[in-house]
Amino acid sequence: MKIDLAQISSQLDSSNSRDRMLALAYLREFSPEEAVPLIKKVLYDEMLPVRSMAIFALGVKPTEECYPILVKLLETDPDYGIRADAAGALGYLEDKRAFEPLVRAFYEDTEWLVRFSAAVSLGNLKDPRAQTVLLKALKSEEVLLQQAAISALGEIEAVETISELLSFASSEDWLVRLRLAYALGHLPGEKSLSALKFLAKDSHPQVSQAATTVLERLDAKELEES
What we know:
This is HEAT repeat domain-containing protein. Helix content is 69%, strand content 0%.
């Protein structure tokens, strides 16, 4: 059954939170210009899952309105989960203006989840200026922040950080090693290849498979370019 914008708008006013979340899901079929005014209706919903879904929707339905809305949520919302969602959505926007607010969130927010989302989004922006922030995250005692930083440094192709990254090849956390394997695929060079060959023999099957897949992809790319 085809549902129109009027029906979605009515469903967003439902007292049932499941109805409101379904309405947000229906908006995926509409243009950003059509969807964003309706998404805004539940940005401050009483149910956090609805708010979270609405914030994500702003990140994937970008209009000129979305950026300032998300920055305001990141900087002022009292709920750290919402701030983290806003940081993540800013990464989806891939708007270079988000660099400064994301950096501020990383340095100033007291909640690690917000800092984690900010680090991930800095990688999504692919802005080389993020390198300093991500190296700081790499030195964090919080393992999830390390994972985010490793992935992001790969995304921004920060070849200069290869020595710092390689120190995680023997991390006790297999997810850290997994993130490293994927990141090394964006950082070509002899050191990366050597580390990938090491990780291809990792005791954890997901790590060894990831490293093997990355090595195969790099070999195929080299053949194409030769």
